[in-house]
Write a structure and sequence with these properties.
- The complex is a heterodimer of chains A (about 230) and B (about 120).
- By secondary structure, chain A is α/β, with parallel strands linked by helices.
- Chain A contains 9 helices and 10 strands.
- Chain A has one domain: Rossmann fold (3-Layer(aba) Sandwich).
- In chain A, α5 packs parallel to α6.
- Chain B has a two-stranded antiparallel ribbon with strand order 1-2.
- Chain B has 2 domains: about 70 residues, Orthogonal Bundle (Arc Repressor Mutant, subunit A); about 40 residues.
- Chain B is about 60% helix and about 5% strand.
- The two termini of chain B are about 20 Å apart.
- Chain B is mostly helical and about 120 residues long.
- The chains are: A alpha/beta (about 230), B mainly alpha (about 120).
- The interface between A and B is medium-sized, with 26 and 18 residues.
Chain lengths: ~230, ~120
Amino acid sequence: MNNMELLEVKELNKSFDNKEILKDVNFSLTKGKIVGLLGKNGAGKTTLIKLINDLLTPTSGEILVKGKKIGVETKKIISYLPERTYLNKQMKVSEVIEYFKDFYDNFDDKKAKKLLKDLDLDINERLSKMSKGMQEKVQLVLVMSRKADLYILDEPLGGVDPATRDYILDTILSNFNEKASVIISTHLISDIERILDEVIFIDKGEIILQEDADKLRNKEKSSIDEVFRRMFKC
Amino acid sequence: MEFTFENNIPIYIQLLDYMKIYLISGVFKTGDKLPSVREFATTFKVNPNTMQKALAELESMNLIYTERTNGKYVTKDEKVIERLKDEYAITLAKSYFQGMKRIGLGKADSIKYLEGIDE
């Protein structure tokens, strides 16, 4: 086992009803990186993320996190922001914080409260009374307030306004440390590419490219967004 | 100050440019201790790894140096900063003349335009 690898995905395949969603996916990530998992809608991003989070079972292949097979142990060190909320919207933010504190040993409630305050969010508010952007911020704060080795954010910018988007990117950056890595899945590349170390392009269930973001810009003399558009012209 | 970055140019090169201007204009003077990578990354709102890369590049150009365990400092050699200023000014001047050439104006005419402009 290579100690440098935080995440290793080996010959991973996933099919639903004989339809191949992921085909022979191979890649690995080291710690201390912000990685963009970039692909169009339906490319397989969420399926891959769900497999890493043990919410789906591979058809074949293997996923290792810090050398361990996916399971209870790896769930403890992965902090996951799903595409859709699973929180009970009738709860107040303060209640959700308590719930996270009970559920995760590595949840830092003081940090969560501080981040929420920085973002001007009231912890006595019910989620159902908050705008979509505010709810997204709350969820991101909860996820980033766990002391994890791997943060996986599935479409963290979906449907938020540009000001909120900047807040979200700043929150990701200021909470990022060299001991952990962050995977951000999105199809909104231009919004996010400035904070990425590495990019992974996924299309029709296959990894097309994995490259250092600035190297790719240098090589192609264009933005990641343009490279992506050229490669996957509809 | 808000820093803007173009997505089509490597971010570390754009950071390098901001840093060069800081050094030339004396925001950081010769011998000054520089903020940490983390602090710079927060100011510029960029990935700390990218900031680290820009600082490493400045170091390889001998514009800054690392004192072991103590952090990074601006070079003590004023001549190095003077040379940087000179190179930067030449680049700006060249790009002005190139722009003027595109609209059919030669060097002499271009200089006349410069002289006609109040700062």
